[in-house]
Write a structure and sequence with these properties.
The protein has a single domain, classed as Winged helix-like DNA-binding domain superfamily/Winged helix DNA-binding domain (Arc Repressor Mutant, subunit A, Orthogonal Bundle). Helix content is 60%, strand content 16%.
Length: 114
């Protein structure tokens, strides 16, 4: 179990970064305001997390103008897709190793909702 945890990339330890990556995994390009609304975070918080992910090479940034308004969009890079996939696989493996199997997951989700 120590090996699994040691190999997990710390860049994904934040719930906001996991949310960013999960959203980008499902969509080709996502603009700043859409991410902000989906994740329920402030401008500064989102900017900080996206900058960290960009520095690691996990996301790509596109800045453009739509009409006269600036628009920043993000997409997951190939490295990001590979690294996030590895992180998710490690999480699943960790859940299996600790005995939290698929049958227990619905109970955990129900407990989290209450």
């Amino acid at each position: 179990m120590k090996d699994i945890i040691r190999d997990m990339d710390k860049a994904f330890e934040s719930r906001v970064r996991i949310g960013i990556m999960a959203t980008l995994q499902a969509h080709e390009w996502v603009d700043f305001n859409t991410l902000k609304l989906r994740l329920g975070v402030t401008d500064g918080n989102l900017a900080s997390h996206t900058a960290s992910l960009e520095r690691k090479g996990f996301i790509e940034v596109r800045k453009q103008f739509i009409g006269k308004r600036p628009n920043t969009s993000y997409r997951m890079s190939n490295l990001g897709r590979e690294s996030f996939g590895k992180y998710i696989r490690s999480l699943r493996l960790l859940l299996n190793v600790t005995g939290l199997d698929k049958e227990a997951l619905p109970k955990v989700e129900e407990d989290a909702k209450s």
